[in-house]
Amino acid sequence: MVEVLIVLGILVVLATGAVVIVQPSLRRARSDAGVAYVINQIR
Fold first, then answer.
1. Is the pLDDT of residue 5 over 90?
2. Model pTM above 0.85
3. Range of the domain at 2
4. CA angle, corner 9, sides to 19 and 16, nearest 5?
């Protein structure tokens, strides 16, 4: 049983780490898309 808990804990840590790594790049992509949209509207 202890091993299962350890594995689950590791998976949770990896998942949260992946989310922390992915979110800033998603935000950056979204802001880039917003900037491109505004520039196209100005033209």
1. yes
2. no
3. 1-43
4. 10
